[in-house]
Amino acid sequence: MVTEPPSQAQVLVASNRGPLSYTLRDDGTLEAKRGGGGLVSGLSAIGPDADAVWVCAALGDGDREAVRRTGGRPDPADTGGQRVRMLGIAPEVYADAYNGVANSALWFVHHLLYQTPLEPSFGPEFRAQWASYETYNRAFAEALADEAADGAAVLVQDYHLALVPGILRALRPDLRIGHFSHTPWAPVDYFRLLPDDIARQLLRGILGADRAAFLTHRWADAFTACCTELLGGTGNTTIGVHGLGADGDFLRERANRPDVDERIVTLRGQIGRTSTGEERKTIVRVDRTELSKNIVRGLLAYRLLLTDRPEWRERVVHLAFAYPSRQDLAVYREYTAEVQRVADEINAEFGTDDWTPVVLHVQDDFARSLGAYRLADVALVNPIRDGMNLVAKEIPLVSERGCALVLSREAGAYEELGEDALVVNPYDISATAAALHEALSMPADERAERAKRLAAAATALPPQQWFLDQLTALRA
Ligand code: F6P
């Protein structure tokens, strides 16, 4: 078979979560729901006629039933025409790989989340989970090898699939393989918490790619340092950096649809007005509820603001949208409960008949999140560590109030937004409270100026560009 010129070659994307999910209805029919996100927008850049296949895992019962009925090739009517190969991984293998390895060990290492009493112990249980992680990665590599035309470009995503490039390289040396990490990368000493053989296997897996790319130089350098320390170098793999920005056109259009206007009416009711009739100011955060987002310390900083600066009482509302994720794992469930508990405590301590200091929503609602973005005076983004954090880019872009941004220096977005944000050490609750005060007190013209520059920086690298740049670099 003749290898097609690289520019014409097929593109494959591999990621744990695919572009759609299925729900099994009571009457036995399946409902397909298409998802959004950077990768979906990014892939749209290669156009509807391009030869592209997306390989993903079946995540829940609905997906697994869809795999059973379709042989893992969902109907194009459900996928919007996108060719999708959905893998029906055995539920026990999937649970071990996704919960046990990816979202416990790997997520915790890359986000520096291990601390007493949450220290890691890697014994026989972890070894069994690791075997599942290998099986799950092999299933992806074999499916990709099976789907790929000669010389195809394969873009493998994230920490779930770190072993795929190495396995795929052995199966199909003709392919151009890229790996992209959406997370931070751990510093060497922290990465070495993992058992030595597993740490090396993860690095060698990614180095099976022609190109390993990261969201910032900081994460790319940390990966290189790990390779140097554990393997003596990065071998023939090129290391790249591709920042990911907000999808400005999509967000601005979506944020002005009627369903968002409706949510704004409800939110305004919850925010309310001061006794002198002024509209209250807002501090907005929107996160998935997981430990790296540092939601509890954000709430504690807000409590400190209300304690130390009573002038803000009844004049500000914290809209905290914390959407539960990864609830199969106790540590994530407990964190979600802790967020709820601290928010309740603040409301009990400071709330009045017509002022609720924290409006906490845990039910995912994209239209409501966009409504909050539009009403934001201050955006609070204070992760302990984050690959990028797109919310930091989205809120200043959509806010109608020229919002100020309080941003953790540990978010990847800091590299691009640091100059116009109020930057905090995410562990420093006092400094975060002080930054919230400064943000709320900032003169309107200064806030508007900064918001304009933040919005420009936020859209400098739209997802389509991010995707095409990776592809071009991989094919070069
Ligand atoms: O932030 C890193 C990331 O891998 C994203 O790319 C992805 O959307 C998410 O985490 C995966 O988490 P979950 O499996 O909980 O959706």
Q: Can you tag this structure with a few keywords?
A:
single chain; 476 residues; alpha/beta; seven-stranded parallel sheet; six-stranded parallel sheet; 19 helices; globular; disordered N terminus; binds 6-O-phosphono-beta-D-fructofuranose; Trehalose-6-phosphate synthase
If you had to describe this structure to a student in words, what would you say it looks like?
- The chain is α/β, with parallel strands linked by helices and 476 residues long.
- 47% of the residues lie in helices and 16% in strands.
- It contains 19 helices and 15 strands.
- The protein has helices at residues 38-44, 61-70, 76-79, 91-110, 124-147, 164-171, 188-191, 196-207, 217-231, 248-254, 258-271, 295-308, 330-350, 366-374, 391-398, 414-417, 429-441, 444-458, 463-475; strands spanning 11-14, 20-24, 30-34, 52-57, 83-87, 153-157, 176-180, 211-214, 238-241, 281-289, 316-324, 358-361, 378-381, 404-408, 422-424.
- A 7-stranded parallel sheet has the order 5-4-1-6-7-8-9, sandwiched between helices. The protein has a 6-stranded parallel sheet with strand order 12-11-10-13-14-15, sandwiched between helices. The protein has a two-stranded antiparallel sheet with strand order 2-3.
- The longest helix is centred in the first third of the chain and has 24 residues, at 124-147.
- Bound molecules: 6-O-phosphono-beta-D-fructofuranose (F6P).
- 6-O-phosphono-beta-D-fructofuranose is lined by residues 17, 158, 182-183, 325-326, 387.
